[in-house]
Amino acid sequence: MQTVLRYLLMLRHIPKQPQKIDVNTLRERLAEQGVDVSVRTIQRNLVELSEVFPLTTDERNKPFGWSLLADAPLLPLVTDGGITRRQNGNGASHASRLTGERVQIELNCDMALQPELEACPLNNSQKLKMLGDKFSLQAEAELSTELLVWILSYGAQIEVVAPMSLRTEVAEHAEAMYRYYFDQ
Q: Under a CB-based contact definition with an 8 Å cutoff, are residues 67 and 56 in contact?
């Protein structure tokens, strides 16, 4: 399980082309999150990840840099365009608001995410705007499972402001998660 979590953390820090990240910087970022592994382990993991994900390495000069291909989807392993029904924590199902339509989204984000979201934007329409101790991310995006999973992966670091249907969907997932941990 530790390896899987490390892989997910690594993928979160690898930017899309033309940006890149070297192994030492990746090691520092993992260490900041409590994952202490050797440079060699990270190198092996990157090679393994590149067999599944659209990762590439720039070997023109040292240190070599790793990046996701520029046209890579948001979450390469999530290909389902949308889930229409899901189970609530109590076993009941409800209709999803993930319609697949393209909408304007607005998210309030913690400042700690700014470097990551600048290096690896949600898409080409993304605009960032400072809001005191937070910043706003605005973009056009498809209401999809991929977007929902991406937002949920940041936990409390992202708040959905608009559209209300996406905000409600995220809140319902958070509430179901809360019930699993605290309503025992």
A: yes
Do residues 119 and 163 make contact, with C-beta atoms less than 8 angstroms apart?
Answer: no
Give the neighbor-by-neighbor strand order of the sheet with 127-131: 127-131, 134-142, 102-110, 158-162
* Contact between 139 and 127 (Cβ < 8 Å): yes
Position 87 scores a pLDDT of: 42
CA distances, 104 to each of 10, 137, 139, 141, 159 (Å): 29, 10, 6, 6, 15
Q: What's the CA gap between 12 and 19, in Å, rounded?
A: 14
Which candidate, 64, 54, 70, 93, places its Cα nearest to that of 16?
A: 70
pTM: 0.55
The per-residue pLDDT for range 120-140, each reduced to its tens digit, is 788 889 999 999 999 999 999
Lookup: tokens for 35: 């994952």
**CA neighbor of 35 nearest in space, from 10, 65, 60, 63:** 10
Q: Is 91 left (phi over 0), alpha (psi -120 to 50) or beta?
A: left
Compute φ and ψ for 109, nearest 5 degrees.
-125, 145
